[in-house]
TrEMBL record:
One of its GO terms (biological process) is cell division. This is Cyclin-dependent kinase 20. GO terms for molecular function: ATP binding; cyclin-dependent protein serine/threonine kinase activity. Belongs to the protein kinase superfamily. CMGC Ser/Thr protein kinase family. CDC2/CDKX subfamily. It is found in: Cell projection, Cilium; Cytoplasm; Nucleus. Its EC number is 2.7.11.22. InterPro entries: CDK, CDK20-like_STKc, Kinase-like_dom_sf, Prot_kinase_dom, Protein_kinase_ATP_BS, Ser/Thr_kinase_AS. It catalyses: L-threonyl-[protein] + ATP = O-phospho-L-threonyl-[protein] + ADP + H(+); L-seryl-[protein] + ATP = O-phospho-L-seryl-[protein] + ADP + H(+). Its main location: other. Pfam families: Pkinase (PF00069). The keyword Methyltransferase does not apply. It is an enzyme of class 2 (transferase). It comes from Thrips palmi (Melon thrips).
């Protein structure tokens, strides 16, 4: 703990603050994820333990690096490389709009990072623009693995149940919305399809305000699912709890206007009811979308977010040069 000092505030997550800091021996800028302990008897949240454990095994340039982690008083700190912005901010920066070629490059980096995770049997389970960070060099990195899980299979190759309460609503696969407990890495691929549509439109494709509205938006857009296009649909836990009006599929050109045909084709490959038929990250990297002009930008031509780029989108008080001990000295810091 004596190796770090806090220099500012980046944001807040489900389990605590993300602070800007400095590694004193080297002067390196870092991000410090300060974990809240809601009840002393619960100990460190399992998501934080899971995130740190998984990140210790990850070595990919497109996944954010965990540099250090340590307990501190009644809390816990994860230390990450400093990233000045995220894909959400880049998409909403009206002063510096990203080009189609730059958007294609972001998608390529996302898929390369996700392919690495999936090849190492890791489901992210919360992919969204806010969890895709952008480095000073313009490189996209997958972050926030608090909901990530190793894929479980038994000796017969059968999976174990997982919770369906994962993924941010707008990017949540329909099987999760129907309460599925047995699912695969394909939940990440649905999220990638939603992100690709958002990169093109600069707004989410399915912005539901409740889980029911979310499912209704998906069904009214993609058409009423059936056992023919979604085997196992009727056996999902929440299938019989709600019914929706019969819907026909809306043309993709209407759902994602002003999108090139190759992009629409790739989005369709991700946004399929049948999770077994969704295109994999590796297969997507070979899709014609990435080989049709404009081609993905080289890194040298990608936007380079400046220090403080997030400040254009959030208005947070910055606490400068606070010794890390002071952030953990009071019990009130951890227990609401």
């Amino acid at each position: 703990m004596e190796n770090y000092t806090v220099t500012g505030h980046i944001g807040e997550g489900a389990h605590g603050l993300v602070l800007r800091g400095k590694h004193l021996p080297t002067g390196r800028e870092v991000a410090l994820k300060k974990v809240k302990v809601r009840r002393l008897e619960d100990g460190i949240p399992i998501s934080i333990l899971r995130e740190s454990k998984i990140l210790q095994t990850v070595d990919c340039r497109y996944v954010v690096k965990l540099l250090d982690f340590f307990p501190q008083g009644l809390g816990f700190v994860l230390v990450f490389e400093m990233m000045p912005s995220g894909l959400w901010e880049m998409l909403h920066d009206i002063d510096n709009p990203i080009t189609p070629a730059q958007g294609k490059s972001y998608m390529r980096m996302l898929l390369m990072g996700l392919n690495y995770l999936h090849n190492h049997h890791i489901m992210h389970r919360d992919l969204k623009p806010a969890n895709l960070l952008i480095s000073f060099e313009g490189e996209l990195k997958i972050a926030d693995l608090g909901q990530a899980r190793l894929v479980w299979t038994d000796t017969k190759g059968e999976s174990r149940p997982y919770t369906h309460q994962v993924a941010t609503r707008w990017y949540r696969a329909p099987e999760l919305l129907y309460g599925a407990r047995f699912y695969s890495k394909a939940v990440d691929l649905w999220a990638v399809g939603c992100i690709l549509a958002e990169v093109i439109m600069k707004s989410p494709i399915f912005p539901g305000e409740t889980d029911i509205e979310q499912l209704a938006m998906v069904i009214s857009s993609l058409g009423t699912p059936t056992e023919d296009n979604w085997p196992g649909l009727t056996s999902l836990p929440d299938y019989n709890k709600i019914t929706f009006p019969e819907s026909r599929r809306v043309p993709w050109e209407t759902l994602v206007p002003d999108s090139p045909p190759e992009a629409l084709s790739l989005i369709q490959c991700f946004l399929l009811y049948d999770s077994d038929k969704r295109i994999s990250a590796q297969e997507a990297l070979g899709h014609s979308y990435f080989f049709t002009p404009p081609l993905a930008c080289p890194l040298a031509e990608m936007p380079k977010p400046k220090d403080g780029h997030r400040n254009k989108f959030i208005d947070k008080e910055v606490r400068a040069d606070v010794p890390i001990d002071e952030l953990f000295k009071d019990l009130a810091d951890f227990v609401p």
